[in-house]
Amino acid sequence: MLMGEPEQEKGWTMFFDGASNTLGHGIGAVLISPKERCFPFTTRLGFNCTNNMVEYEACAIGIAMALEYQIKDLKVYGDSALVIHKLRGEWETRDAKLIPYYSYIKELVEHFEKITFHHTPQEENQMVDALATLSSMFEVNRKAIHSDMTLLCCVYAKKAKEILEEIHEGAFRAHASGLLMARKILRSGYYWAKIEADCCNHVKRCHKCRIYVDNIQVPLVPLNILSAPWPFDMWGIDVIGPTEPKTSNGHCFILVSTYYFTKWVEVASYPSVTRKVVIKFIKNNIICRYGIPSHIITNNRTNFNNKMMTELYE
Where does the record locate the signal sequence feature (predicted)? Predict the structure, then answer.
Protein backbone atom coordinates (compact mmCIF):
# COMPACT_ATOMS: atom_id res chain seq x y z
CA MET A 1 0.00 0.00 0.00
CA LEU A 2 1.41 3.37 -1.04
CA MET A 3 0.06 6.66 0.34
CA GLY A 4 0.67 10.11 -1.13
CA GLU A 5 2.57 11.35 -4.15
CA PRO A 6 6.11 12.58 -3.41
CA GLU A 7 7.70 15.72 -4.81
CA GLN A 8 10.48 15.36 -7.36
CA GLU A 9 13.43 16.74 -5.38
CA LYS A 10 16.94 15.64 -4.44
CA GLY A 11 18.14 14.56 -1.01
CA TRP A 12 15.61 11.84 -0.19
CA THR A 13 15.89 9.35 2.70
CA MET A 14 14.58 5.80 2.83
CA PHE A 15 14.14 3.55 5.89
CA PHE A 16 13.37 -0.14 5.47
CA ASP A 17 12.72 -3.12 7.72
CA GLY A 18 11.31 -6.64 7.59
CA ALA A 19 9.42 -8.75 10.09
CA SER A 20 9.22 -12.52 10.24
CA ASN A 21 7.09 -14.33 12.83
CA THR A 22 4.69 -17.24 13.23
CA LEU A 23 1.92 -15.28 11.49
CA GLY A 24 3.91 -14.65 8.33
CA HIS A 25 6.46 -12.36 6.71
CA GLY A 26 6.00 -8.62 6.14
CA ILE A 27 8.14 -5.79 4.81
CA GLY A 28 7.92 -2.02 5.12
CA ALA A 29 9.69 1.02 3.73
CA VAL A 30 9.28 4.77 4.22
CA LEU A 31 10.44 7.47 1.82
CA ILE A 32 11.10 10.86 3.43
CA SER A 33 11.30 13.94 1.22
CA PRO A 34 13.57 16.96 1.81
CA LYS A 35 10.46 18.69 3.19
CA GLU A 36 10.11 15.80 5.69
CA ARG A 37 6.97 14.38 4.13
CA CYS A 38 6.65 10.64 4.75
CA PHE A 39 5.47 8.15 2.13
CA PRO A 40 5.10 4.67 3.70
CA PHE A 41 4.87 1.41 1.82
CA THR A 42 4.09 -2.00 3.27
CA THR A 43 3.18 -5.46 2.00
CA ARG A 44 2.93 -9.06 3.10
CA LEU A 45 5.11 -11.71 1.46
CA GLY A 46 3.26 -14.72 0.15
CA PHE A 47 6.13 -17.21 0.51
CA ASN A 48 8.35 -18.61 3.24
CA CYS A 49 11.75 -16.98 3.68
CA THR A 50 14.49 -16.36 6.22
CA ASN A 51 14.99 -13.17 8.25
CA ASN A 52 17.81 -12.02 5.95
CA MET A 53 15.68 -12.62 2.86
CA VAL A 54 12.91 -10.51 4.40
CA GLU A 55 15.38 -7.66 5.00
CA TYR A 56 16.60 -7.84 1.41
CA GLU A 57 12.98 -7.83 0.17
CA ALA A 58 12.27 -4.70 2.23
CA CYS A 59 15.36 -2.94 0.91
CA ALA A 60 14.60 -3.88 -2.69
CA ILE A 61 10.97 -2.77 -2.46
CA GLY A 62 11.98 0.60 -1.01
CA ILE A 63 14.60 1.27 -3.70
CA ALA A 64 12.18 0.21 -6.43
CA MET A 65 9.58 2.57 -4.99
CA ALA A 66 12.11 5.42 -5.14
CA LEU A 67 12.79 4.63 -8.80
CA GLU A 68 9.06 4.70 -9.51
CA TYR A 69 9.06 8.37 -8.50
CA GLN A 70 12.30 9.14 -10.36
CA ILE A 71 14.32 9.96 -7.25
CA LYS A 72 18.03 10.26 -8.13
CA ASP A 73 19.65 11.12 -4.78
CA LEU A 74 18.85 8.67 -1.97
CA LYS A 75 20.16 7.75 1.49
CA VAL A 76 19.15 4.26 2.59
CA TYR A 77 18.90 3.37 6.30
CA GLY A 78 18.28 -0.10 7.73
CA ASP A 79 18.85 -1.95 11.01
CA SER A 80 20.16 -5.10 9.29
CA ALA A 81 23.95 -4.96 9.53
CA LEU A 82 24.27 -7.89 7.12
CA VAL A 83 22.31 -6.19 4.32
CA ILE A 84 23.90 -2.76 4.76
CA HIS A 85 27.52 -3.98 4.93
CA LYS A 86 27.06 -6.33 1.96
CA LEU A 87 25.53 -3.59 -0.18
CA ARG A 88 28.44 -1.34 0.76
CA GLY A 89 30.77 -4.05 -0.50
CA GLU A 90 32.37 -4.50 2.92
CA TRP A 91 31.12 -8.06 3.39
CA GLU A 92 31.03 -10.88 0.87
CA THR A 93 27.75 -12.56 -0.09
CA ARG A 94 28.08 -16.34 0.12
CA ASP A 95 24.56 -17.55 0.90
CA ALA A 96 23.07 -18.89 -2.35
CA LYS A 97 19.60 -17.66 -1.34
CA LEU A 98 20.82 -14.07 -0.89
CA ILE A 99 22.92 -13.74 -4.06
CA PRO A 100 19.89 -13.07 -6.35
CA TYR A 101 18.69 -10.34 -3.96
CA TYR A 102 22.14 -8.74 -3.91
CA SER A 103 22.40 -8.81 -7.72
CA TYR A 104 18.90 -7.37 -8.15
CA ILE A 105 19.52 -4.46 -5.79
CA LYS A 106 22.84 -3.71 -7.51
CA GLU A 107 20.96 -3.43 -10.80
CA LEU A 108 18.55 -0.96 -9.23
CA VAL A 109 21.39 1.08 -7.72
CA GLU A 110 22.81 1.80 -11.19
CA HIS A 111 19.79 4.00 -12.00
CA PHE A 112 20.62 6.50 -9.24
CA GLU A 113 22.96 9.46 -9.54
CA LYS A 114 23.87 9.06 -5.87
CA ILE A 115 22.85 6.42 -3.33
CA THR A 116 24.42 5.56 0.02
CA PHE A 117 23.68 2.85 2.60
CA HIS A 118 23.77 3.48 6.35
CA HIS A 119 23.23 1.23 9.35
CA THR A 120 20.83 2.56 11.99
CA PRO A 121 19.93 1.14 15.42
CA GLN A 122 16.59 -0.61 15.71
CA GLU A 123 15.38 2.04 18.18
CA GLU A 124 15.58 4.67 15.42
CA ASN A 125 13.75 2.47 12.94
CA GLN A 126 10.53 1.95 14.89
CA MET A 127 8.08 3.34 12.32
CA VAL A 128 9.18 0.98 9.56
CA ASP A 129 9.46 -1.90 12.01
CA ALA A 130 5.82 -1.33 13.01
CA LEU A 131 4.73 -1.28 9.35
CA ALA A 132 6.55 -4.52 8.62
CA THR A 133 5.09 -6.20 11.71
CA LEU A 134 1.55 -5.11 10.84
CA SER A 135 1.86 -6.33 7.27
CA SER A 136 3.13 -9.72 8.47
CA MET A 137 -0.03 -10.05 10.59
CA PHE A 138 -2.32 -9.26 7.65
CA GLU A 139 -4.29 -12.23 6.38
CA VAL A 140 -6.67 -12.51 3.44
CA ASN A 141 -10.19 -13.34 4.56
CA ARG A 142 -10.93 -16.35 2.38
CA LYS A 143 -14.58 -16.38 3.44
CA ALA A 144 -15.11 -12.89 2.00
CA ILE A 145 -13.70 -13.84 -1.41
CA HIS A 146 -15.81 -15.63 -3.97
CA SER A 147 -14.41 -18.89 -5.21
CA ASP A 148 -14.22 -17.62 -8.80
CA MET A 149 -12.30 -14.42 -8.00
CA THR A 150 -8.64 -13.99 -8.95
CA LEU A 151 -6.13 -12.60 -6.46
CA LEU A 152 -4.21 -10.02 -8.50
CA CYS A 153 -0.45 -9.56 -8.32
CA CYS A 154 0.59 -5.88 -8.14
CA VAL A 155 3.59 -5.18 -10.38
CA TYR A 156 6.03 -2.31 -10.93
CA ALA A 157 6.62 -0.22 -14.04
CA LYS A 158 9.33 -2.47 -15.53
CA LYS A 159 7.29 -5.64 -15.09
CA ALA A 160 4.14 -3.84 -16.26
CA LYS A 161 5.87 -2.89 -19.51
CA GLU A 162 6.85 -6.53 -20.12
CA ILE A 163 3.26 -7.64 -19.47
CA LEU A 164 1.89 -5.01 -21.86
CA GLU A 165 4.18 -6.15 -24.66
CA GLU A 166 3.43 -9.84 -24.04
CA ILE A 167 -0.35 -9.40 -23.95
CA HIS A 168 -0.42 -7.04 -26.94
CA GLU A 169 2.20 -8.55 -29.25
CA GLY A 170 3.49 -11.75 -27.64
CA ALA A 171 1.76 -15.11 -27.34
CA PHE A 172 -1.70 -13.50 -27.57
CA ARG A 173 -0.87 -11.40 -30.70
CA ALA A 174 -4.36 -9.97 -30.68
CA HIS A 175 -3.41 -6.28 -30.87
CA ALA A 176 -6.50 -5.56 -28.80
CA SER A 177 -7.74 -2.09 -27.94
CA GLY A 178 -6.63 -0.39 -24.73
CA LEU A 179 -9.60 -1.22 -22.48
CA LEU A 180 -9.89 -4.78 -23.83
CA MET A 181 -6.19 -5.35 -23.19
CA ALA A 182 -6.58 -4.04 -19.62
CA ARG A 183 -9.33 -6.59 -18.97
CA LYS A 184 -7.13 -9.37 -20.38
CA ILE A 185 -4.31 -8.38 -18.02
CA LEU A 186 -6.69 -8.41 -15.05
CA ARG A 187 -7.94 -11.87 -16.04
CA SER A 188 -4.31 -12.99 -16.22
CA GLY A 189 -3.89 -12.01 -12.56
CA TYR A 190 -1.91 -8.73 -12.75
CA TYR A 191 -2.72 -5.20 -11.65
CA TRP A 192 -1.16 -1.76 -11.28
CA ALA A 193 -2.59 1.67 -10.56
CA LYS A 194 -2.61 3.14 -14.10
CA ILE A 195 -3.37 -0.07 -15.97
CA GLU A 196 -6.09 1.34 -18.27
CA ALA A 197 -4.17 4.54 -19.13
CA ASP A 198 -0.97 2.57 -19.80
CA CYS A 199 -2.82 0.11 -22.06
CA CYS A 200 -4.41 2.93 -24.09
CA ASN A 201 -1.06 4.72 -24.47
CA HIS A 202 0.65 1.47 -25.50
CA VAL A 203 -1.93 0.93 -28.26
CA LYS A 204 -1.38 4.50 -29.51
CA ARG A 205 2.37 3.82 -29.80
CA CYS A 206 1.94 0.45 -31.56
CA HIS A 207 3.04 0.80 -35.21
CA LYS A 208 0.88 -2.06 -36.52
CA CYS A 209 -2.20 -0.76 -34.73
CA ARG A 210 -1.69 2.66 -36.32
CA ILE A 211 -1.34 1.13 -39.81
CA TYR A 212 -4.27 -1.29 -39.72
CA VAL A 213 -6.66 0.72 -37.56
CA ASP A 214 -10.09 1.40 -39.07
CA ASN A 215 -9.27 4.89 -40.29
CA ILE A 216 -10.54 6.49 -43.49
CA GLN A 217 -7.72 6.07 -46.02
CA VAL A 218 -9.36 8.16 -48.79
CA PRO A 219 -7.10 11.10 -49.76
CA LEU A 220 -8.21 14.59 -48.88
CA VAL A 221 -10.17 16.49 -51.53
CA PRO A 222 -11.51 20.05 -51.56
CA LEU A 223 -15.03 20.45 -50.22
CA ASN A 224 -17.66 21.56 -52.73
CA ILE A 225 -19.86 24.32 -51.41
CA LEU A 226 -23.58 23.78 -52.03
CA SER A 227 -25.23 27.09 -52.71
CA ALA A 228 -28.77 27.61 -51.44
CA PRO A 229 -30.20 31.12 -52.03
CA TRP A 230 -33.02 30.38 -49.60
CA PRO A 231 -34.36 27.33 -47.76
CA PHE A 232 -36.14 24.69 -49.87
CA ASP A 233 -35.24 26.39 -53.16
CA MET A 234 -34.43 23.29 -55.26
CA TRP A 235 -36.39 20.03 -55.35
CA GLY A 236 -36.12 16.85 -57.40
CA ILE A 237 -39.22 14.81 -58.29
CA ASP A 238 -39.44 11.22 -59.51
CA VAL A 239 -41.84 8.27 -59.62
CA ILE A 240 -41.33 4.80 -58.14
CA GLY A 241 -43.44 1.98 -59.54
CA PRO A 242 -45.52 0.25 -60.39
CA THR A 243 -45.02 -1.84 -57.25
CA GLU A 244 -46.36 -5.37 -56.70
CA PRO A 245 -48.54 -6.24 -54.97
CA LYS A 246 -50.78 -3.19 -54.82
CA THR A 247 -51.83 -1.69 -51.52
CA SER A 248 -55.29 -2.31 -50.05
CA ASN A 249 -56.58 0.91 -51.64
CA GLY A 250 -55.14 0.04 -55.06
CA HIS A 251 -52.08 2.31 -54.96
CA CYS A 252 -49.05 1.06 -56.89
CA PHE A 253 -47.08 4.27 -57.65
CA ILE A 254 -45.02 6.36 -55.22
CA LEU A 255 -44.35 10.01 -56.00
CA VAL A 256 -41.16 11.23 -54.29
CA SER A 257 -39.75 14.74 -53.97
CA THR A 258 -36.31 15.38 -52.42
CA TYR A 259 -34.85 18.69 -51.24
CA TYR A 260 -31.31 18.77 -52.65
CA PHE A 261 -29.58 20.57 -49.78
CA THR A 262 -30.73 18.56 -46.74
CA LYS A 263 -32.11 15.49 -48.61
CA TRP A 264 -35.48 15.97 -46.95
CA VAL A 265 -38.10 13.73 -48.59
CA GLU A 266 -41.82 14.17 -49.23
CA VAL A 267 -43.67 11.01 -50.32
CA ALA A 268 -47.21 10.12 -51.41
CA SER A 269 -48.75 7.03 -53.05
CA TYR A 270 -51.27 6.99 -55.89
CA PRO A 271 -53.01 4.43 -58.14
CA SER A 272 -51.65 6.34 -61.16
CA VAL A 273 -49.42 9.38 -61.66
CA THR A 274 -51.21 11.72 -64.05
CA ARG A 275 -50.56 15.38 -64.79
CA LYS A 276 -53.26 16.48 -62.34
CA VAL A 277 -51.80 14.23 -59.63
CA VAL A 278 -48.35 15.77 -60.09
CA ILE A 279 -49.76 19.34 -59.97
CA LYS A 280 -51.73 18.50 -56.80
CA PHE A 281 -48.66 16.90 -55.18
CA ILE A 282 -46.45 19.94 -55.89
CA LYS A 283 -49.05 22.35 -54.52
CA ASN A 284 -49.89 20.39 -51.36
CA ASN A 285 -46.52 18.81 -50.47
CA ILE A 286 -44.05 21.50 -51.58
CA ILE A 287 -45.55 24.95 -52.18
CA CYS A 288 -48.04 24.97 -49.29
CA ARG A 289 -45.48 23.57 -46.84
CA TYR A 290 -42.15 25.11 -47.86
CA GLY A 291 -42.95 27.98 -50.22
CA ILE A 292 -42.38 28.42 -53.94
CA PRO A 293 -39.07 26.79 -55.02
CA SER A 294 -36.72 28.30 -57.58
CA HIS A 295 -36.09 24.98 -59.36
CA ILE A 296 -37.93 21.67 -59.74
CA ILE A 297 -35.85 18.99 -61.45
CA THR A 298 -37.58 16.07 -63.22
CA ASN A 299 -36.81 13.46 -65.89
CA ASN A 300 -39.02 15.33 -68.42
CA ARG A 301 -41.67 12.64 -68.77
CA THR A 302 -45.02 13.77 -70.11
CA ASN A 303 -46.62 13.83 -66.68
CA PHE A 304 -43.86 16.22 -65.54
CA ASN A 305 -43.25 18.21 -68.73
CA ASN A 306 -46.60 19.49 -70.03
CA LYS A 307 -48.75 22.60 -70.45
CA MET A 308 -50.23 22.36 -66.94
CA MET A 309 -46.76 22.29 -65.38
CA THR A 310 -45.70 25.27 -67.48
CA GLU A 311 -48.71 27.25 -66.26
CA LEU A 312 -47.87 26.29 -62.69
CA TYR A 313 -44.29 27.50 -63.10
CA GLU A 314 -45.47 30.81 -64.52
Answer: none
